[in-house]
Write a structure and sequence with these properties.
By secondary structure, the protein is mostly beta strands. The chain has one domain. The chain contains 1 helix and 10 strands; from the N terminus they run ββββββββββα. β4 and β5 form a beta hairpin. The longest helix is centred in the C-terminal third of the chain and has 11 residues. The protein starts with 7 loop residues before the first strand and ends in a 6-residue tail after the last helix.
């Protein structure tokens, strides 16, 4: 099975968030520590790079490194109930990702109709679905 490299943008300023194979965002922990986090840009790959240790289960606030707008959405993770954050996809649509370290909750979407999601997936892969 091939992996999907997601080309992401800020849903507010539309600037690129993906560089090479990483999505780079600013983050803030509840104790006030801040930094830059890099998330794997491959869909369903959960690798991250952070400047210091973040305990599993910690909820982070993520923001755009360009416009600094908070990316927290009004949706909650269906796996752990933590807030989701939203990033845009260059091909259209969005992906919502859980803000809790270690949770694998995410949702590819932003579309009202299933056929729109199929169009998005076809734009992301080399061999389209029918």
């Amino acid at each position: 099975m091939s992996t999907l490299l997601l080309r992401t943008v800020c849903p507010h300023c539309n600037k690129d968030l993906t560089k090479d194979e990483w999505v780079t965002l600013n983050f803030r922990l509840p104790d006030g520590r801040r930094g830059r986090i890099a998330l794997s840009a491959y869909f369903c790959t959960y690798a991250i790079k952070v400047p210091f240790s973040i305990p599993n289960g910690m909820v982070t606030t993520l923001s755009c490194p360009h416009c600094r707008v908070d990316l927290t959405s009004d949706k909650s993770c269906s796996l752990c109930s933590a807030p989701l954050f939203t990033i845009g996809l260059k091909t259209g649509g969005i992906i919502d990702v859980c803000s809790r370290k270690g949770c694998r909750g995410h949702a590819l979407g932003g579309f009202a109709r299933p056929e729109e999601l199929i169009i998005l997936i076809n734009n992301l892969v080399d061999q389209p679905f029918l």
